[in-house]
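Below is how a single chain appears once it has passed through the pipeline. First comes the sequence as given, then the structure the pipeline wrote out for it. We keep one example in the README because the format questions we get most often are answered faster by looking than by reading.
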Amino acid sequence: MITTVTLNAAIDKTYYVPRLSPESVMRVRRVFAEPGGKGINVARVAHQLGHEVQAAGFIGGHNGRFIRQELDRQGLRHDFIEIEGESRICLNIIDESDGSSTELLEPGPVVDAEAMERLTVKLRRLAAQSRVVCLSGSLPAGVPAGFYAELIGLAKREGAAVFLDTSGEALLRGAEAAPQLIKPNEAELAQLIGRPIGQSPADIAEQLASLSPERMSAACITVSLGADGSLTYYGGAYYRTYAPRIEAVNTVGCGDAFIAGMAVCMAEDLPIEEALRLATAAGSANALNEKAGYVNPEQVRELLTQVAVERLQ
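Resulting structure:
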């Protein structure tokens, strides 16, 4: 089983407008509203890929009830902690004239110490039943930067491999707890290294190589290159993954779909090259879907044949 943890769950709303024009009245052509937050997106894609999944984390208020009801409707198992306050709404506005997107992210509710303790108790039980635990997304107000590191240690003691996908101080602290996988982007990699990095894949590979096990104890570090794929360190080797060339309609949730593909392969003990292929195909399939955190399994299978993975010397 894969368990995902979303500390700052959301309703993800997507508005499609003919042209985004500030200081004007715009008519929305289409609206989507779905349970969201990075961990929920991971859970949904892993479920669509045919794996057993349990989604956990914090939800609250009317928006929290919507999240529960929609996950029930989608057949996705969940075990959330109910908290005071209202789960947030995250708005993605798609400009149909050029395909660009503008995101507006609410901060979310405040989480108290009692709720955090309840989550640690719950996660201990879920981690003992899981091959992989995915910790994804931002920290809500009230949650300290070291909380992910605490959850990583807890889940590892129960025998689960832990993936961490976050940013800022939470990523820096969490990486020190030796998760199985982290997925920084280029800016976050610069944070981890403590200095600016070059923009080319060769520059990024060189910076990845500078992360010694003593400084960065994650077994797998994968850096997204957007539409160009990713660079990954795993098991003492470096891998360049090339993504399919597609006409993307939505880029929100692609990283979450990538994490889902990696988690499915890790849970099934598949080789790293196969994991990178599935993860990249899933991320690309998400980009072909108007909803974040959704893939068509048939599209994933088609895209798998278009993904190339190269082991670097």
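The chain has ten helices and 14 strands.

See the next section for the split statistics.
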